[in-house]
Structures are given as C-alpha cells and as structure tokens.
Design goal:
With about 475 residues, this protein is an alpha/beta fold. About 45% of the residues lie in helices and about 15% in strands. The protein contains 15 helices and 15 strands. It binds adenosine monophosphate and zinc ion (ZN). The site of adenosine monophosphate (AMP) has 17 residues, from α1 and β9.
C-alpha cells in the first residue's frame, strides 16, 4: 500500500487516486530568467524519481509542469541584457529543457507557458471578483485572504495569531492598495515598457500564483492527486494557489501536497549550511555541475537522502554517490562478463529484491532504504559461491530494472583482461597500468597505423585483441573495443 506524506495534514496517508489508477500530478516549474541551479534540480529530480516510480508501479501518470515566462525578474533581466522579456524567457526556457534532458529528467506530458494561458487566468480572476474573494484597486486585483476561512491551513499559519499574524489595514485605518498585508495580487496593472494584456480591469499582467491555479484546472481538472514543489513554495505560493482554486472553482484542489527539502551548501566563512539560492549567490548551476559530475551520480545523491530532508551538497557527498554508483556498475559489469565468459556454478538463489524495493518505496518514497536493499542484495550476490549463470542473469535483470525505475543509467563497462596492458606496451609504448587507458592507447596506435597505411600493424592489433574476445567497433563517434 502506497503511503505519501501529505503536507496538508502533516502525516503519511494511504494514497488513493481520484480516478482508478490514473494520477494527475502538478509540479511548479521554473521562472525562466537564468539557468537553473542544483537546488532547483534537486526538486525536479526528486519529482522525476517519484513520477518514474509511480509509472513503474503501474499508474497512468499525467504530469504537468508550467513555465513562468512573465515575471518581474524576467523583465529586470531583459533590461540588464538590453533585450525583451520575451527573448529572455525563450532563451532560458530552451536552456531549462536542455538542462533537464542532461539530468535525465523526463519531459512533462504538458508544459504550459504562462503567457499562452492568459485567457484562462483572466477567467479565474473574474470568478474570484464575482464571488467576492477578490477586489479591484486602480487596475490591480487582489485576493482577500479574510474572505476564505481555510486560508493558512496548508502552511499552518493563522492570519491573526503569532509572529506570522498579518495586519488588517482596514481596522488600523491605514490607506493602502491592499486591505490586509496578507492579500496578494492576482492581476497587476501595466507599467510602461512591460509586457501586458487586455483584461476587464485594463491592461495588465497576471500575478505569479494565479498561473498554477489556472493551468492545473485546465490540464488536470479538480480535484487532482499530487501537487509538488520545494518546501520554500508552501508559503505563500501554494497557500495562495490553494485558496484561489478552492474559492474560484468551488471544489477541492490537490489531494496530496508533496514538498522537497532544500538543497543546502556550507558557507565557507560561517560554517553554516544555507539554502542554495540565487539571492544568496551561493549557487552552482546544474549544467556546470554536470561538467564535473555524471548525471547518474547526481541522481544517486538525491536517492541517498529522503526527498523531504535537507541535502547538504559538497565534494564528499559527490564522492560517496559516485562510489555507490560504481559499486552497482561493477557488480553488473562483472556479472555480465562472467555470464558471457564462464559456464557458471550450480547454485540458484531466490531473488525477492523487488518486494523489498516496493516496500521501501511505498513508504513515502524511501529511496535511501530502497537503495540499501539493492546494496544488501549486491552483497549477497558477491558473497555467494558457485552462483549459476541463470541466477546471475536474474540478478543483473532486477538490478537494471530497479535502477531504471529510479532513472539511473548504468554505464556498461567492458571488463578488459590484464593482457591489454602488454598489448598497449607493444603497440603504443604504453607505460601505465590502467586498462581503460591502455585500450585508448591501442586505439590511438591503430588510428595512426591506418592513417599511415601500415595495414600490418592495424591488422595485428585487431588479431591480438580478438585472442581475448575483444573486438574493435568503428562508429561515427569513433572506435571502441567491445566484447565479442
Ligand atoms: P524557482 O524558479 O525559484 O521558483 O524554483 C523552482 C523550483 O526549485 C521550486 O520548486 C523551488 O521550490 C525549488 N528550489 C529552489 N531552491 C531550492 C533549493 N535550494 N533546494 C531544493 N529546491 C529548491
Ligand atoms: Zn505553482
């Protein structure tokens, strides 16, 4: 039984989809004014893992993620770069998609852009004004938080109590555009030089929160199953989305609210762990990180920490994640080599890894526990003597299937025999002891021999490699050595 921690009720709950085995899932997307950093990536990768698991588990998932392509920050960036907000949004939307592909994050089923859904948003704002949940001030429209009793229930804030209490500006007699400090803009009157659209309240543009309410309603219908984002979005963004949708559509909104813990980075000066954010200027962009770290390693890092816990990023964690990934890859590669090159033993084992994996993942997506089960299985395989090739093959299949469900692509390595070092010494004067480097040197020597029409040498290399069941494959990306 799948259980999900629901931020709304602050507890794990049995997951029941609105309709059969279909799941409507909405995860707030980026504001496209810069490339995303690895903090953003942590949230997107976590939801990719969750989505992949739900699909693997047999659910039919519709995943919607918006792109916020009109916003103050985009306009500011356009002014800085002396271009239009439209150009900035277009450029960074494209780069966002590239970054997500590089991190092996699946494309959403629908990726609506705010600027293409303005009509939907205007309809929503109008419904809120008509219902008495919103008011108009000189071309701005604000949501009246006091008009909805449930305001604050997602984030656990009470409008009138404690530090988070807001001031009712009306009772204080203060003149302000907003009636209450907590009221928020649904529609903003146009300012000169900014993108704007016509509306019943004059030229203007939508507020940020309204787009997710409009798009989730349009593409998933209400109520839908899962709404996700980073925990920094609980207040005000998700609180506001929820209030708007419930009041405008007179319906439930998201049944399960899921929030990821923040990726943090240690401040060199203070030693404190801080949230990675653009405003603190302590960020590492995802594409820069991926120049140093394999995408699969970055994903392992996410898997090793529960999605709701903070994740402190640093070289030590990267090294641990890489070592863990290598352990899985080495096991799979060694087993594959043994299956192909030996007749195997006669011991068969029962493999019940899948059940343990499901048990861990069904418990609010406990990925680190699920990984732990995979490692325990690997330890068992490695310590079992005389394992049959059938059991080895079954082990390879299940490990690959589960890592695939996580979205981790395992690198297939050929297990080169020790003799390649001697061959590299013979043909390329190679003096090292790394087998992969030796193969590189041999391929280089062969390329040079072919260029110089030294066919005897080129053929000699091929023949010598074939003695060890190694074969040269020439591909458009260059030559490589594979097991024959
Ligand atoms: P933004 O473009 O700032 O709206 O962020 C896009 C997504 O990244 C949101 O779901 C945020 O909650 C999430 N996010 C931002 N900073 C971090 C962080 N340091 N760790 C994890 N998620 C983050
Ligand atoms: Zn949103």
């Amino acid at each position: 039984m799948l259980k999900i921690y629901n931020t709304q009720n602050r507890k794990k709950e049995e997951f029941k989809p609105v309709k059969d085995n279909k799941i409507g899932m909405y995860v707030c997307g980026p504001t496209v004014y810069n490339r995303i950093h690895i903090g953003n990536a942590r949230t997107f990768i976590s939801f990719d893992i969750i989505r992949r698991y739900l699909i693997w588990r047999g659910y039919d998932v519709i995943f919607v993620q918006n792109v916020t392509d009109v916003d103050d920050k985009i306009i500011a960036r356009a002014n800085e770069e002396n271009t239009t907000a439209e150009e900035i949004a277009k450029k960074y939307t494209q780069l966002f998609i590239e970054d997500m592909h590089a991190a092996n994050v699946l494309d959403p089923d629908v990726r609506p852009k705010a600027t293409q859904e303005i009509g939907e948003m205007i309809k929503l704002v109008k419904a809120l004004v008509d219902n008495g949940n919103a008011y108009v001030v000189d071309g701005d429209v604000y949501f009246d938080v006091r008009s909805y009793n449930g305001y604050g229930s997602l984030s656990g804030r009470d409008i009138d109590e404690g530090e988070s209490g807001h001031r009712d500006l009306r009772t204080e007699g203060i003149e302000d555009r907003k009636r209450d400090e907590a009221d928020f803009a649904l529609w903003k009157a146009a300012k000169p030089g900014e993108p704007s659209w016509g509306s019943p309240w004059g030229q203007g543009r939508p507020g940020w929160h309204i787009e997710c309410s409009a798009m989730s309603h349009k593409y998933l219908g209400l109520p839908f199953d899962i709404h996700g984002g980073g925990s920094d979005l609980i207040f005000p963004h998700h609180e506001n989305e929820r209030a708007q949708s419930i009041c405008a559509y007179d319906s439930g909104f998201a049944n399960y609210w899921m929030h990821t813990g923040m990726l943090q980075i240690t401040n060199d000066k203070t030693g404190d762990n801080e949230k990675m954010s653009k405003s603190l200027n302590n960020f590492v962009l995802l594409y820069e990180a991926l120049e140093q770290v394999r995408p699969a390693t970055l994903r392992m890092l996410s898997l090793q920490t529960h999605y709701r816990s903070p994740l402190v990023f640093g070289q030590k964690r990267i090294d641990e994640a890489e070592a863990a990934l290598k352990r899985i890859e080495n096991t799979v590669n060694t087993l594959n080599w043994e299956i192909n090159n030996t007749s195997g033993g006669d011991k068969d084992i029962d493999i019940n890894l899948k059940d343990k994996f499901i048990e861990a993942m069904d418990d609010d997506f406990n990925t680190s526990k699920a990984l732990g089960e995979i490692f325990a299985f690997i330890a068992e395989i490695n310590s079992t003597d005389n394992l049959s090739n059938a059991s080895k093959q079954a082990a390879v299949n299940i490990i690959k299937e589960l890592m695939d469900a996580f979205g981790v692509e395992l690198e297939q390595q050929v297990n080169y025999p020790d003799e390649v070092i001697e061959l590299a010494a013979k043909y390329a004067d190679f003096k090292g002891n790394d087998k992969t480097e030796a193969i590189e040197a041999i391929l280089q020597a062969r390329a040079e021999a072919r260029q110089n029409k030294n066919w005897d040498i080129a053929d000699g290399i091929r023949d010598d490699l074939s003695k060890f069941n190694l074969q040269i494959e020439d591909t458009p990306d260059g030559s490589r050595v594979v097991q024959s």
